[in-house]
Amino acid sequence: MTSSLTLFSDNYYTARHRFLTAARAKGYQVETARHPLSGNFPAEIATDTVRVGPEKARKVLFISSGLHGTELTTGSGIQLGLLDEIESWLPADMAAVFIHAVNPFGSAAMTRTDENNIDPNRNNLLSFDPLPENPDYDALHDALCPAVWDGPEREAAEARIAAYIDEKGFESFSRNVLAGQYSHPDGLFYGGKERSWTIANLAEVVSRHGAGAERLAIVDLHTGLGEYGALEVIRRDSTPRAGAASSSIRHVACDVLDDVDCPEAPIKVILEFGTFPIGQIVNNHRADTWLKFHGDLHTPLGRRIKAELRNALFCDDPEWLEAVWRQGESGTRAVLDELSGTSTATAD
Hints:
This protein is an alpha/beta fold. The chain has helices at about 10-25, 70-85, 85-90, 105-110, 135-145, 150-170, 170-180, 195-210, 280-295, 300-315, 320-340, and strands at about 30-35, 45-50, 60-65, 95-100, 215-225, 230-235, 265-275. The chain has a domain at about 5-130 and about 195-275 and about 315-340: Aminopeptidase (3-Layer(aba) Sandwich). The protein has eleven helices and seven strands. α1 runs parallel beside α2 (about 70-85) and α9 packs antiparallel against α10.
């Protein structure tokens, strides 16, 4: 039995080393896509892909981590545990493809976004002409991302946000902010103006490993939405549940499965593990965005912002870790069984 407390690592470099070591110990081949800015880091940063099962499979399950860099250590821990089990789960006609650290820059830098402040889960568009609009975000951008993180300017920014919430409600605020925006490269949840390295590389891996299959599925591992330690299953292959916090999010990465020509429609599932209230999570990302564009990491404030961001998306708590591993294991198994045809669809 896998012990949840031994799976999770404290940073990208340790997580990557452990994932590669475990894969090679089992004799699995590793494909490495080195990030173009790898030379700016103390060690190589890359997206690593491991295929388990036949090279030609009728059905392929992708299991991805680290699309948001702040969430890599949780997803990597689940992948590490699954590497030890999944071969025994696979039917003869199915392969599982692990994609570790989809966004290696963000994973190594402990930030949600890529090297251009692009949120990969808002960047999966086939065409960026015209760019999607988000007027509610535009009206609040200067308040959400003030140039000064304390004093009167910050107080005024908080007052504007509070006034918006008083008028339209917190649900409207979170939905419109989370939806993504394409007008402010220095802002929150920025979707970019072209496909990023992260999404282009993910699409290439999925297209190559999915070629010739009859049906594909993906389990994309995330943290930050939902109740503490609870699993929220988000289906991207059906209409989202009314009122779900994720219902407004567009152009997500797991939709790259739609790029592959398969006879059957893909299964697209995001597994979200809850940490803290969404308002707190947004504020942690606001602080990190300020630090990126206006602050200095090598100060007490900078270090505190990074520590608080890490702790907001990864809870170093034995009960949380156990809950996340068990639900990650069972959630992945449920998608695998759905793909194999031995069970019905997992509910959103």
